[in-house]
User: Fold CRAL-TRIO domain-containing protein from Pseudo-nitzschia australis.
Amino acid sequence: MDMELDNDSDNDNDNNDNDTNNDTASNNNDDDDDEKDKHMNDAISSELLKLTYGDRNAIQEEIHGVRCLAIQETAELKAVALDAFRHELTLVANDSELKAAYNKILERQQQQHSRQLLQQQRQQPPPPSHSSTRRTRSRCFMETDDFRLRFLRCELFDVRKATIRFLNYLNLAHQLFGSVALTRQIGLQDFTKRELKWVKKGFIQLLPYRDRAGRRVMAIMGGGVRSNSEQEVDFLARAKLYFYIRDAATRDSVESQRIGAVLVLDSSVWEGGGSRAEQSPFFSPALYAVTQKTIASVPTRMVAIHYCFPNTPAFRTFNVLKLVTNFTQSYLLRVQAHVGSKMENRYKLKGYGIPVHLLPLTEAGSIKVKYFHDWRKLRVRLEKEENKNNHRINTTSTSSTNTSIGIDINVNINVNVNINQHQHNNQHQHHYNFSSEGNDGDGDDSRSRVVECPALNDVVFRQGTPSIKNPGNVIFRDKMVAFLEEFYGQPSQQRQPQQQQQPQQSERIEQFCNWLIADTELHRKGRFLEWSKPWNTWVEMEHRDRIKYKVGVSFRDRCKRYVTLRNQLLSESAAAAATANTNGTTSTSMEGVVVETELSFAFVEGGSSRATATHPRIPCCSGSTASSPGLRNDTTASLSSSRRRINGTVPRSDSNFSEMGAF
Assistant:
């Protein structure tokens, strides 16, 4: 009996010891998490303290999208920087590992040029001995000015840093993609079929529109690789895809090269085990090594990096290990870590101007791939067209001669066709005229007018969609609403007699639409884009009449919505006033309100109503104002003005622009 009591006592002591050990372990884990968080904060704070107050403030403002640290470029600055870039390349030893891929590219180019010269000598007689003609090889992609300017813009025209990034880029591209990276820029066709299966899952995507500062947004929806050997293809595909998308984000846009891009890593797909993403939260050290090389080589300036983590102990540890031990301190200056639920992190990202509604992640945790598949198909087609163009240039321009002096000529062949730069440099060089310029090219969706992602001030038109996701359309609509609100703010004393409204009204509308076009193209340096079904993307509109027509239709639709909302508010106000005065003791200004739904202005409705059925259906900006639609007839003019005015303001019908009074 005593022995049983002793055993029970020993068991109780053991249980108490286990509970104590568990509590101690839990406290130790909490202490470890706090220590790791403190270590991360100390690392970032120590790096920030090395900067001046102005530098710290500038970085934070750029992260929030209210400032851009890009250098103001001039022709002289670019020429001097490119000369310094070439000189800096000569300072790097040829036997250096940093210059390995660079030397291989030059060697291949020289061999190809020698074969071309030998072939020409067999087909043509040699030149006279007294001639000073010299044949030079054409430039390869890495020698073009556009390609090198990308690295200069990424490093804010720090020539030495740009040169190192340039050489690192060539080495890493050769390491990931092989010998094809020595001949041209890499593309989606350089992925294997097995790798493309992983690519199509959409773990790494570019959003279809920019943020509020005009920066491309690169989203990584989890996608960590497992540590077992069976997932080796996932590791390689992820490394190659991250390199490619980060490179393609700014490849064809000078604006994106200058203002940079934003990276969002959303780990919410891992919450609850991560089985829906077919991934594991454990990452391969080799992946981080390649990621570091990609950050140090690809010429895309990431101005802000947002890491969104679930608020769990595992990710608190992962947060510190990833940010502190795997990345440089200068990289941490741009990092914003957000820990919380999915909705909390969305609100935090929204405060930085990131379009969270475009993030390709559903509420259930599935990754949306529609936009990504469209973008992928577009890139494949653009790269094929570019390769054909490069092949044509190389076959027709194999040599260059100079018979006047015995020096080599550097033939400036832009292999890397820069679509958006070409458009921005040439789209406003003509004399601005609102009349038709005979540009019959809107139906010809040539590659030179293809736009992969609309710029910040671009206005897009697509049938059946309001394009509310594009920042340029938001500004465009705000100006329309401001025009309508300005009109409604006019007192009745400033309105002209009804007989003088008719010609001036249509003229004022056309003037406003013309001003709206000029403000977009000349003042804000934007473009008008429309959706192209053959290209499955946006193309720049060139025909002036088509632009004016699209703007007129957009203004008409905006008027409809504005009138509907205003009449709804007027009706509610009238009902409230009638209820308040049921005793009939007083009279209010809302007593005679009548919402007129039968009258319609031709510009808004398309040209026909019971009161204006004799007028043709044409939108605004379509012709002279002498026969402008929507002029009210005798039936309209006979309406009592006392039934149409409220405190000196003419309430409009659901779509009757003429009921707004004189402009």
Remarks:
- Confidence is low (pLDDT under 50) at residues 223-230, 272-282, 399-445, 587-663.
- The two ends are 107 Å apart (CA to CA).
